[in-house]
């Protein structure tokens, strides 16, 4: 099976994507949502919280497993996708669009420490 | 309330909640006291509450007694338990409990008020003291507390004892090592006691990887938690070497008693070098499972740890039994003497079986697992095993295979764990089952193995309740009967 991997995003080994566009939008990958199965609950930080790269920023629960979510960049949480609280299925249905989780105002806009799309693709194959 | 057509109701394989069958009436309408109870004069009770906080009647659901009795009987018929058929959950160990233990615990003189004086509780204390001794003998330990109310509580108590021991030695250690195949409670017990949990990988044979252990051990190691045989049913052959390695860095070796039923009368954790252990009396002996009510998870320790045992401990002084507070106790972990009636059942089981009976039980637990494994078509990657084995459902989804087994009148094994085996079917028939029952189980395994993907995805079909929509149940839980109307 092949999973969507977007070239305009950077990735963490723990399957979060980061999309730079002024702020950095964060979610989990198509591969990750497929591994997890039906997502039933997402716990996210609050707007204004500060995160360090690699820090746990939330929890995602599926019918199979409970997993921690890790911040791909350091910065302040500028927005949280509150739709996920009532519609966690968006993470399954649209991991790169409606299923986004956070927008982070990054301390450092340079995302070079993260995996490129190609590197992430290698990891999942 | 929606009133359903009774014919339609009968065609559905489900039992309504008894609220749904109820008529809603005020208490006044349904209860008219006998004239003789009313007495001669009417009594008017003035409520001290203002009128807007009181009501004249309470609407309660009313069901006729025969309907209610039949409702609960139907529900019980839809249920499946250890008295319905085999229940081969590996690791969880569900088994039939012989009735003589229940009979004993149901005797009126077994219900002793825990506040009775020691002098008036000598019989109770004697039974508990004897059980402490039996368990110490069985585990090769020097002292046993009966206080913890379940196996997991026993683990937690054991780790607290280990922590108290290190602290008393002025030794501030921060880590507990747990094999990745260990019961989830091991990780939780260590973390709750304030330790960092170090996860230890298995080697290619499913046993402790001694090289990885060597790398994980340090001056920070407070304890290594192990179960032997492990969750794959494999005996840890290097246990003496492992014990030496842990002791060399000043750590303690903790025995998770979950799988002691494989060793009863044959090998003792104390002789292998373990320092502290818990006993799952429901697995190893025969008492109700703690998850559904009061349980018991006694803890055994070597001499050096005795003074840290929970308060109170029971000892014999002269010809009387008494409770005392161990010198450097970790404190209370339960009220009074632990769950006395559960402990009484364990005592009854041990004394009824005796040494030879307990040894026979472990032989049968291992024989039954190996016989069943021989009969089934699923691959079993690791062995030789003892009291349980982990088969792989292979290309099938283990959860689907388990659902399919329900159609053949048996409870399925534990699924998808441990993760070392892909699509795991973790199976423990226990010593309690006959060859005939094992053959029935094997037939259910093989029927699931030969089922098509379509059949599996749709299973079960012959049970009172079909496939549950887990996702919907988690995303939109209906936690009140009123939500059923929504």
Low-confidence stretches of chain A: none
The two chains with the largest interface, and their residue counts, are: A-B, 7 and 4 residues
CATH architectural arrangement of chain A: Beta Barrel
Note the gap between the termini of chain A: 10 Å
Count structural domains of chain A. Answer: 1
| CATH structural fold name of the largest domain in chain B | Aspartate Aminotransferase, domain 2
CATH superfamily of the largest domain in chain B: Type I PLP-dependent aspartate aminotransferase-like (Major domain)
* Second-tier CATH architecture of the largest domain in chain B: 3-Layer(aba) Sandwich
Overall pLDDT of chain A: 95
Low-confidence stretches of chain B: none
Alpha plus pi helix count of chain A: 4
CATH topology of chain A: OB fold (Dihydrolipoamide Acetyltransferase, E2P)
Helix content estimate of chain A: 10-25%
Shape category of chain B? globular
Number of helices of chain B: 18
Q: Compute the gyration radius of chain A: what is it?
A: 13 Å
Give the amount of beta strand of chain A, in percent.
Answer: 35-45%
SSE layout and pairings?
The complex is a heterodimer of chains A (125) and B (486).
Chain A: E1 10-11, E2 16-21, E3 23-28, H1 30-36, E4 39-43, E5 50-51, E6 56-62, E7 66-70, E8 75-80, H2 83-86, H3 90-93, E9 102-106, H4 117-124
Antiparallel strand pairs in A: 1-2, 2-3, 3-9, 4-6, 5-8, 6-7, 8-9
Chain B: H1 6-11, H2 18-21, E1 23-26, H3 27-30, H4 35-38, E2 59-62, H5 65-78, H6 99-106, H7 122-139, E3 143-145, H8 151-168, E4 175-179, H9 184-192, E5 196-200, H10 210-216, E6 221-226, H11 239-248, E7 252-257, H12 269-272, E8 276-279, H13 281-284, E9 299-301, E10 313-317, E11 320-324, H14 340-375, E12 389-392, H15 398-406, E13 414-415, E14 424-427, H16 435-449, H17 453-458, H18 470-475
Parallel strand pairs in B: 4-5, 4-6, 6-7, 7-8
Antiparallel strand pairs in B: 1-2, 3-9, 8-9, 10-11, 12-14, 13-14
């Amino acid at each position: 099976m092949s999973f969507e991997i977007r070239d305009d995003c950077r990735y963490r080994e723990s399957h979060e994507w980061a999309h730079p566009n002024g702020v950095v939008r964060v979610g989990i990958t198509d591969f990750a949502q497929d591994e997890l199965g039906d997502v039933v609950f997402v716990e996210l930080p609050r707007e204004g919280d500060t995160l360090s790269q690699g820090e746990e920023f939330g929890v995602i629960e599926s019918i199979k497993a409970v997993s921690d979510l890790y911040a791909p960049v350091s910065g302040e949480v500028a927005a949280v996708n509150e739709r996920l609280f009532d519609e966690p299925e968006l993470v399954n249905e649209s991991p790169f669009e409606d299923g986004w989780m956070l927008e982070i105002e990054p301390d450092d806009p340079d995302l070079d420490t993260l995996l490129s799309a190609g590197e992430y693709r290698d990891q999942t194959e | 309330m929606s009133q359903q057509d009774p014919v339609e109701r009968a065609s559905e394989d489900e039992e309504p909640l008894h609220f749904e069958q109820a008529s809603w009436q005020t208490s006044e309408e349904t209860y008219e006291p006998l004239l003789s109870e009313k007495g001669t004069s009417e009594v008017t009770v003035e409520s001290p509450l203002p009128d807007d906080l009181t009501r004249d009647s309470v609407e309660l659901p009313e069901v006729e007694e025969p309907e209610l009795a039949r409702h609960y009987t139907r529900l019980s018929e839809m249920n499946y338990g250890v008295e319905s058929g085999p229940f081969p959950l590996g690791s969880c160990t569900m088994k039939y409990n012989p009735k003589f233990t229940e009979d004993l615990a149901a005797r009126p003189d077994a219900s002793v008020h825990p506040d009775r004086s020691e002098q008036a509780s000598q019989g109770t204390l004697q039974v508990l003291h004897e059980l402490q001794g039996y368990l110490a003998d069985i585990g090769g330990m020097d002292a046993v507390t009966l206080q913890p109310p379940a196996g997991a509580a026993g683990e937690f108590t054991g780790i607290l004892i280990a922590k108290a021991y290190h602290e008393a030695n002025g030794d501030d250690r921060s880590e507990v090592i747990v094999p990745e195949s260990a019961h989830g409670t091991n990780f939780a017990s260590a973390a709750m006691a304030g330790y960092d949990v170090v996860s230890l990988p298995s080697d290619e044979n499913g046993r402790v990887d001694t090289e990885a252990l060597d790398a994980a051990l340090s001056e920070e190691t407070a304890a290594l938690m192990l179960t032997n045989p492990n969750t794959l049913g494999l005996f840890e052959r290097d246990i003496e070497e492992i014990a030496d390695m842990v002791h060399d860095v000043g750590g303690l070796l903790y025995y998770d008693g979950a799988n002691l039923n494989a060793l009863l009368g044959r090998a003792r954790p104390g002789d292998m070098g373990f320092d502290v252990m818990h006993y799952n009396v429901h697995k190893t002996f025969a008492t109700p499972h703690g998850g559904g009510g009061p349980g018991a998870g006694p803890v055994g320790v070597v001499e050096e740890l005795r003074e840290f045992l929970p308060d109170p401990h029971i000892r014999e002084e002269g010809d009387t039994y008494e409770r005392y507070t161990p010198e450097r106790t970790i404190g209370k972990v339960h009220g009074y003497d632990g769950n006395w009636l559960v402990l009484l059942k364990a005592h009854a089981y041990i004394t009824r079986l005796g040494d030879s009976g307990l040894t026979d039980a472990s032989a049968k637990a291992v024989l039954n697992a190996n016989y069943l494994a021989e009969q089934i078509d699923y691959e079993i990657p690791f062995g030789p095993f003892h009291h349980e084995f982990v088969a792989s459902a292979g290309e099938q989804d283990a959860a689907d295979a388990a659902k399919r087994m329900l159609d053949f009148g048996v409870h399925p094994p534990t699924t998808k764990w441990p993760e070392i085996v892909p699509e795991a079917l973790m199976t423990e028939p226990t010593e309690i089952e006959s060859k005939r029952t094992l053959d029935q189980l094997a037939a259910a395994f093989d029927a699931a193995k030969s089922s098509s993907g379509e059949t599996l995805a749709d299973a079960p079909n012959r049970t009172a309740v079909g496939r549950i929509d887990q996702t919907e149940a988690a995303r939109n839980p209906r936690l009140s009967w009123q939500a059923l109307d929504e």
